[in-house]
Amino acid sequence: MDIKLPDISDALKPLPRLKSLVMTELEEIKRKTPIDRKVFLYAFLGVFGFLLLIAFLLPLISAPSHTSPTAAAVHAQAPAEPAPVTSAQQKAIDENDGHSHDPLPPAPLKELEEPLGTNTIPAIATDGRKPAQIYARPYNKDDIRPRISLVVGELGLSRTLSEAAINDLPGPATLVFSNYSSEPDGWMAKARQSGHEVLLSIPMEPLEYPSSDPGPNALLTRNNNDENKALLLKHLINGKGYIGVTSFSGSRMNTAAEKLKPLLEELNKRGLIWLDTNFTPFSVGDSTAKQISLASTKANALIDDNMGIAAMDRILRDVEHDAVKIGRSVLLVQASPLAISHLREWAKGLAAKHISLAPLSAVIE
Predict the structure, then answer these.
(1) Is 315 in contact with 350 (CB distance < 8 Å)?
(2) Do residues 239 and 108 make contact, with C-beta atoms less than 8 angstroms apart?
(3) What confidence tens digit (pLDDT) does each residue in 331-344 have?
(4) pTM for the complete prediction?
(5) Where exactly are the structural domains of the chain?
(6) CA distance 172 to 359
(7) What whole-number distance in Å separates Cα of residue 30 and Cα of residue 9?
(8) 254 vs 285: CA distance, rounded Å
(9) Which secondary-structure segment (H or E) carries 328?
(10) CATH fold for the domain made of 101-362
(11) What is the DSSP pairing of strand 174-178 with strand 198-201?
(12) What is the DSSP string of 321-360?
C-alpha cells in the first residue's frame, strides 16, 4: 500500500524567525538568571524536536485507511474454519445432513391421545412420553455446528403450495399447517411421510382486529379464559402427529399475558411445544411460556410472502450470522412459490458454511 507523506516545507518556513526569537529569549534569561546555557539549550531543543515529530506524525495517524471496502467486507464475511471434530461429532453431522426425506413413524399413537367428544386430542402418556418428543424429527445433538431452524407456514390451504413445501424443502424444515385446512390430518401425514415434523397453527386475535379477521372460532382477548380454553381444545382436534402449536395471526393475543398464560398452561399439560411467531416487539409469548416451564422458542426473523430475492438474501445472511454468533436461529417463512424455490437452493449451501439445518424441536429450550 502506497502512503503519501505530508509536505512539511510550509511547517519549516518559520524556523529562522523562531530561532531568532529563541536566541533573544535565551539572552534575556541569561541576563536575568545565571544558568548553564548549554544544558538549557539541549533541553529546549529536545522538547522542540519532540513537538515537531508529533506535528509530523499526526496526519499519518489520523489518515483514513486505504484498504478496499469491498475486500474488507469479503474478509469479514468469510466463514471461519471449523474446529476439529471427534468421530462421534462427525457421525452426528453425517446423520443430520443425510436421510433428508426418510419418513417419520406413523402418527398418532393411541397412548398419546385423549378422547374429546367423538374425537381425540394430544395428551401425555401414562409413562410420561410427550407428543413433542415422540413426534419430533430425530436430530443427533452431538452435532456441534450452529443450528438454523426453518419453519414454513401456513400450509394446507393451497394444494400446490403445500405439495411444493413438502416435496421441495429439505426434511429438517418444520412445516406449519393451518387449522382451517380442509384436511389437516392428511396433510400432516403426508408431511411426516416426507420427513418433516409439523406444527398446528390456530387462529388468535391480531393487532388489527376487528378490521383484520383471523377467522371463525378465533381466540380473542375479549373472551374469558374458559371460553378461550374451550376454543383451543376444539382446534386441537384438527391434525395428528404435530409436536406443538403456533399462531400466524395472534399478534395481539401474544401481548396479553393474562389471556395467553392459561392457554400455554393447557399446551404444557398436553406435552406440546409453543412457537412464538414474534410478529410484534411487544410479544410476551416466549417469556410467558418459560415462566411455566413450557418448552418454547420464538422466531428470530421473518420472510413474508411478498418478498423478493434481494430482501430474502439480506434476511438469510442475518440468520446465518445470528446462528454462528449465538448457536441457533429460527427463521419463520410465510410460504410463497418464490420463497420455497429460493430456500430450497439456499439450504443446499449450509453444510459448506458449517451450519446445520435443524428441525424446530432441536432448537427448543
Answers:
(1) no
(2) no
(3) 999 999 999 999 99
(4) 0.78
(5) 9-63, 101-362
(6) 5
(7) 32
(8) 5
(9) strand 328-334
(10) TIM Barrel (3.20.20)
(11) parallel
(12) HHHHHHSEEEEEEE--HHHHHHHHHHHHTTGGGT-EEE-G
